[in-house]
Design goal:
Layout lengths: L1 E7 L3 H8 L5 E7 L7 H18 L4 E5 L17 E4 L4 H6 L2 H8 L7 E3 H7 L17 H9 L1 H11 L5 H4 L1 E6 L8 H11 L3 E6 L3 H8 L7 E4 L3 E5 L7 E5 L2
Parallel strand pairs: 1-2, 1-3, 3-4, 5-6, 6-7
Antiparallel strand pairs: 4-8, 9-10
Helix pairs in contact: 1-10, 6-7
């Protein structure tokens, strides 16, 4: 297949690892990690890239290596070429390799701060959190919930997705370490910074399962949403399907 990949550069090393082993032909674009700060801007950026790719070449599909990412991918439209996107709340699910592992580790606190090689390498982010000028955060995601669902429903959704950290996580710093990038030593660098901040390292083993599946074309309905031409991404915000495709009109 001839495919277009649009990905956040937090996955650049992992994506390139899989691309080098894929049987398919790719054109590739990476967005900047900091683009997540404003979800509306990221959505506009991604739609512009999708539209440009739709006019440029006869791709078999346009692949998006993103999760919902603060609603940044909700509303994205497939023009004349189908889109394929992982069923994932955010990059944490993608780095862990499955929704089941994300639910196991983060069900009680979906917005728990975490980091990875890409976060430290691309932005020197100690933790991906909602606070602080130097951090990646959800930006205007709450405003998007209000626009779509109204103030009361938005408040319920936000509080459900962003509860206070349970006591066992409050003093821990989570790092997702993938075997393919472990040799870079970022887990140890992260541990040093965590301990200096009075936190204990919680090391989780990551997996390339979702990244490899997206790039290899193994688009099972369980793990990926295929958005046909003339449809757009809509949020479900559950633990099973996460997103769905609906007609644009």
């Amino acid at each position: 297949m001839f495919l277009k990949l649009i990905a956040c550069n937090v996955f650049q090393r992992e994506a390139c690892y899989c691309l080098a082993r894929s049987p398919h032909i790719f054109d590739i674009e990476f967005t900047e990690l900091g683009d997540h700060i404003h979800s509306d801007r990221l959505r506009d950026n991604l739609q512009a890239r999708i539209d440009a790719a739709s006019k440029a070449r006869p791709y078999d599909a346009i692949l998006l290596l993103f999760g919902i990412c603060g609603n940044a991918t909700v509303g994205l439209q497939a023009r004349n070429i189908p889109l394929v996107i992982p069923r994932a709340h955010d990059c944490c699910t993608i780095l862990l390799g499955s929704r089941e592992l994300f639910k196991t580790h983060f069900k009680d606190a979906p917005s728990t701060p975490f980091s990875s090689a890409g976060y430290m390498e691309r932005g020197d982010y100690y933790l991906r959190t909602n606070d602080g000028d130097q951090q990646v955060h959800y930006g205007d995601a709450y405003a998007e919930y209000v626009r779509q669902y109204g103030e009361d429903n938005a408040k319920y959704i936000w509080e459900s997705m962003h509860p206070e950290l349970p006591p066992d996580l409050e003093h821990k710093a989570v790092f997702i370490d993938l075997p393919e990038t472990s040799a870079l030593g970022y887990a140890e660098k992260f541990r040093v910074r965590a301990e200096a901040d009075g936190k204990k390292l919680l090391l989780l083993k990551g997996s390339l399962h979702l990244i490899k599946g997206l790039i290899d074309g193994a688009w099972s309905d369980e793990d990926f949403l295929r958005v046909p031409a003339g449809h757009k991404v809509a949020g479900l915000y559950d633990w099973t399907h996460i997103i769905q495709a609906v007609p644009t009109s």
